Amino acid sequence: MTLLAAEHALQAAQRAGDVDALDALLHPRCVGAGPDGSVFSKEDDLESYRSGFLQITRLEEESLDVQEHVLSGVTRLVAAVEAVQGGTVVSARLSYTRLWVRADEGWLVLAATLAPAAAPA
């Protein structure tokens, strides 16, 4: 699977709340940083979907840059996102930067950040 295909599979899993697919795409030691500066683990992320705390109702790719190397890669995604988080409806334009590593089972996210995206020019 190419890194582009892995990124698209991750987006589809987020939209569907597919915990099994997310589990398969996140490295066991994956760490993320949210827009508020909070840091979360793979298990924290999976639990937010599993419990229903986070439900992404729309994740629409606006732009995507993929840099694939032999053993690692980076994706930078800007997306319009709508979700229900802890019972609150949220809507934002977000920028995701993900560091991917190639493993025997394919591409895995090792680190990720998400932040508000700048307004389109």
UniProtKB/TrEMBL annotation:
DUF4440 domain boundaries: 3-108
Pfam families documented for this protein: DUF4440
Highest taxon in the source lineage: Bacteria
The protein's name: Nuclear transport factor 2 family protein
